[in-house]
Amino acid sequence: MSPDADPRSAPTSPRPSGLWRTVAEIERHVATDGWGAPLRLFALVRTADALDRDPGLARRLPPNVLDEARADPDHLTSVEQEGVPAVADLDELLGQLAWPDGVDGAALVVERILVPPDAETEVRAVTAGDDEAGRARALAAHPLAEDVRIAVGVLRDGRHECAVRSRSKDSDGEVATGADLVPGLVGALAATLQD
To answer: Of 113, 115, 144, 172, which residue is most buried, by most CB within 10 angstroms?
Structure first.
């Protein structure tokens, strides 16, 4: 910046979106339970709308959340879904989900094992054709395998955010965030919100 420039006109970084903050909060919340957790599923509702529908909710929310909701009409509240069935295939679960109109979005957190594409090709070459369980065990045992926790949030209007934490860099400051980190999972979750 030149010495004559007005500091009030300096560019500022954009304020994080309500969805970005919510996905980051959900991931941090789930991280407190450690690794090896089952899939976690959350309904996302605009806090201001929820307060309009249920004024008694104001007594159950912390004061800072009420202040944030008053200041930001896009502020979201996450509601964890209890009794999510344990399924072997995430696509199967997501294919069965549908959200009522009062839900503005959905989020999920799931743990996966990632390996570089070359390692996956190598494992596919040495495992028998349809032996998915054997392939999964071989991938998990691969020296380049990395445990990751993936959090994805999607709104009905199409906005989406992701957060990915690796076990080898298990700290809040090392969580990767971005809208398009796991597009397949974003698309599958978005499909649960289709009318």
So the answer is: 115
pTM over 0.85: no
For residue 43, give the 3-state DSSP assignment. strand
Interatomic CA distance for residues 147 and 114, integer angstroms = 6
DSSP, collapsed to helix, strand or coil, labels residue 113 as strand
Spatial distance between the Cα atoms of 79 and 59, rounded to a whole number of angstroms: 16
Per residue in 71-101, pLDDT tens?
Answer: 888 899 999 999 888 777 888 889 888 899 8
String of DSSP letters for 120-157: HHHHHHHS-TT-HHHHHHHHHHSTT-EEEEEEEEEETT
Residue-wise pLDDT for 155-181, tens only, equals: 999 999 999 999 988 888 989 999 989
Phi-psi label, residue 36: left if phi above 0, alpha if psi -120 to 50, beta otherwise: left
Q: In 12-102, which ranges are E strands?
A: 40-46, 76-80
Residues in Cβ contact with 90 at an 8 Å cutoff, skipping those fewer than 6 apart: 39, 110, 185, 188
Chain segment 98-130, per-residue pLDDT in tens:
899 889 999 999 998 887 777 777 776 666 666
Q: From CA 37, how far away is CA 33, in angstroms rounded?
A: 7
